[in-house]
Amino acid sequence: MAKIKLEYLWLDGYKPTQNLRSKTKVEEHENFQGTLEELDNWSFDGSSTRQAEGGSSDCILKPVAIYPDPDRINGYLVMTEVLNADGTPHESNGRASIDDDDNDFWFGFEQEYFIMDTHTQLPLGFPIGGYPAPQGMYYCSVGGKNTHGRSLVEEHANLCIDAGLNFEGINQEVACGQWEFQLFAKGAKKAGDEIWIARYLLDRLTEKYGYYIDYHPKPLGKDMDWNGSGMHANFSNTTLRTCGDKATYEAICEAFRPVVKEHIEVYGEFNDQRLTGLHETAAITDFSYGISDRGASIRIPIITVEKGWKGWLEDRRPASNGDPYKIAGRIIKTVKSAKI
């Protein structure tokens, strides 16, 4: 019998930005295969995570995805949904509300973030009491003058790949100490699972570096001339992948126009500080779309056009601290409402 370490992960009840929580269950298994069918529900004290009152504090953790834990011997990462004691989805459970049971929707998320030094409380590369050179030379840079944090980023990429995530790439971003990774999945729930697992691996990794990750969309201040952090959502369904019709694409984009408020509500806290119309963003009060336009709310990739209007769209508004479950769920609802 082998001892198996199961790290149960869940999202807490903090509003409007939820946090990852986790705890370890050690079980004995004779021949563990790493499948959901081998896992039991678990519980936790919801009164400590703003998900229950102290007098009735048990919340249920329902496993929904499992991945090998590349940093532990006989370890696994278990993404869960939070349920009430009666088995119904907890109000904090955004994953349960996603309307994509057939996995027709595909999502590719681009997760931007800043690596912060725990001691200085500043992004890597920022001197105490001052600023590094203006942005321009940091994006996709190489060399110690402009590139900061590569060791952590490379190790994180390896961990994600070893965990079996569909990890698609990394690059340094426009601001000093800012990076991005990309993940793709067929199925909105799976895409959300993989972003949260990747965030967990990144956050846990910083513990040995003396760093922390700042997912705030504008951590350097809204008035500073530095790019903010987003989580651009690339999405498609069968219609977008196969229609071959410009008018259909425009109809789907137009479906987003009357529900700007509903999207912004779930696209991340403090996003108004990032969506100003500057630094490759559209203003939070506006809605626009355009071919190859990184200053639009929704970008129509040039590859989609070149392939005869068969491909995907990119919603550039989601913030780096947004919940991918809620973002994907809202996008799906809007796309399904399009009059095509």
TrEMBL record:
<keyword id="KW-0963">Cytoplasm</keyword>
<keyword id="KW-0067">ATP-binding</keyword>
<dbReference type="Pfam" id="PF00120">
    <property type="entry name" value="Gln-synt_C"/>
</dbReference>
<comment type="subunit">
    <text>Homooctamer and homotetramer.</text>
</comment>
<dbReference type="Pfam" id="PF03951">
    <property type="entry name" value="Gln-synt_N"/>
</dbReference>
<feature type="domain" description="GS beta-grasp">
    <location>
        <begin position="4"/>
        <end position="87"/>
    </location>
</feature>
<dbReference type="GO" id="GO:0006542">
    <property type="term" value="P:glutamine biosynthetic process"/>
</dbReference>
<protein>
    <recommendedName>
        <fullName>glutamine synthetase</fullName>
        <ecNumber>6.3.1.2</ecNumber>
    </recommendedName>
</protein>
<dbReference type="GO" id="GO:0005737">
    <property type="term" value="C:cytoplasm"/>
</dbReference>
<dbReference type="InterPro" id="IPR036651">
    <property type="entry name" value="Gln_synt_N_sf"/>
</dbReference>
<dbReference type="InterPro" id="IPR050292">
    <property type="entry name" value="Glutamine_Synthetase"/>
</dbReference>
<comment type="similarity">
    <text>Belongs to the glutamine synthetase family.</text>
</comment>
<keyword id="KW-0547">Nucleotide-binding</keyword>
<dbReference type="GO" id="GO:0004356">
    <property type="term" value="F:glutamine synthetase activity"/>
</dbReference>
<feature type="domain" description="GS catalytic">
    <location>
        <begin position="89"/>
        <end position="340"/>
    </location>
</feature>
<dbReference type="InterPro" id="IPR008147">
    <property type="entry name" value="Gln_synt_N"/>
</dbReference>
<keyword id="KW-0436">Ligase</keyword>
<dbReference type="InterPro" id="IPR008146">
    <property type="entry name" value="Gln_synth_cat_dom"/>
</dbReference>
<dbReference type="InterPro" id="IPR014746">
    <property type="entry name" value="Gln_synth/guanido_kin_cat_dom"/>
</dbReference>
<dbReference type="InterPro" id="IPR027302">
    <property type="entry name" value="Gln_synth_N_conserv_site"/>
</dbReference>
<comment type="function">
    <text>Catalyzes the ATP-dependent biosynthesis of glutamine from glutamate and ammonia.</text>
</comment>
<dbReference type="GO" id="GO:0005524">
    <property type="term" value="F:ATP binding"/>
</dbReference>
